[in-house]
Design brief:
With 110 residues, the protein is α+β, with helices and mostly antiparallel strands. It contains 3 helices and 6 strands, in the order E-H-E-H-E-E-E-H-E. It starts with a strand and ends with a strand.
Amino acid sequence: MAGVESGSDSKGSVARVRAALAKFGLDAEIKEFDASTRTSADAEFVRAATGFAIGGVAPVGHTGPVTIFIDQDLRQYGDIWAAAGSPNAVFRLTPADLERITGGRVIAVK
């Protein structure tokens, strides 16, 4: 994949996500992009609530308790991609894995 390399960051938020995934037995390869995948503007709130920078909020590895909602429409996909702790890192998993590792509540997001 052009512009993508395997994640090798052994520090910080990406390492926290890697460790959290390993606790669930998920050996997900983390990909790091050259450019950010940021999509949110409420940066201070997001960092304070999750410990992650916007665009890098992973479904696991939060620094405090968070309520997780999962869009039921994700169940239609075999694989999905989630942020991996930094604005340019992602990992692949299945919707079932996402539900299992987060304990999130599946809802209709419309």
